[in-house]
Amino acid sequence: MRVGIGYDSHRFASGRPLVLGGVRVPDHDGLTGHSDGDAVAHALIDALLGASALGNIGEHFPDSDPRWEGADSMDLLAATIRLIEERNYQVVNADVTIITESPRIAPWVPQMAERIAELLRIAGSCVSVKGKTNEGMGWIGRGEGMATIAVVLLDQIGDIDTLHASIRTGG
User: Fold this and answer.
1) How confident is the model at residue 167 (pLDDT cuts 50, 70, 90)?
2) Half-sphere exposure of 123 (CA within 13 A, CB side)
């Protein structure tokens, strides 16, 4: 078993859609970023890469590479899952905290958790997504942007055939 922690933060940017955990959150400015700015996906990617000792998001998807400009961060998350599966790891669970004053994310939490679970190849009951405010303190409290923290637990399995059999049976 291996634990990874990921963090991401972005400033808000007008004229961009807000995408969190692969879900479009309407009526709010989006986040800056070379890709779509999905801070939830970025924190999960770093947590997965950290747990499997594969570096960080910037090493695999650098913002200096035009291939990733405007990329769907859920595609990057899917690519990261393939990387860890190649090393015989599977995700056990994921816990995500989104820190923002606005928007309130509760209405979109079920969709985010479902989408994340689908990509991580785990049951929805193994994904937690929650929102917290910063109680008006600092740059987040002033509404300048948001931060996300993600924790994942990985389990190493014997071989890739066992991994795929486990994924198919939901184990």
Assistant:
1) low
2) 6
| Rounded Cα distance, 46 and 38, in Å | 13
Give Cβ neighbours of residue 46 (< 8 Å, ≥ 6 apart).
4, 5, 6, 7, 8, 56, 57, 150
Instruction: Name the CATH superfamily for 2-169.
Output: 2-C-methyl-D-erythritol 2,4-cyclodiphosphate synthase (3.30.1330.50)
Largest CA distance in the chain: 50
Residue 171 has pLDDT above 60, yes or no: no
**What is the DSSP code string of 18-83?**
EEETTEEE-SS-EE--SS---HHHHHHHHHHHHHTT---HHHHS-TT-GGGTT--HHHHHHHHHHH
Q: How far apart are CA 99 and CA 142, in angstroms?
A: 12
Tens-digit pLDDT profile for residues 67-121: 888 889 999 999 999 999 999 999 999 999 999 999 999 999 999 999 999 999 9
pLDDT for 32 beyond 90: yes
| Nearest one of 144, 126, 125 to 134, comparing CA atoms | 144
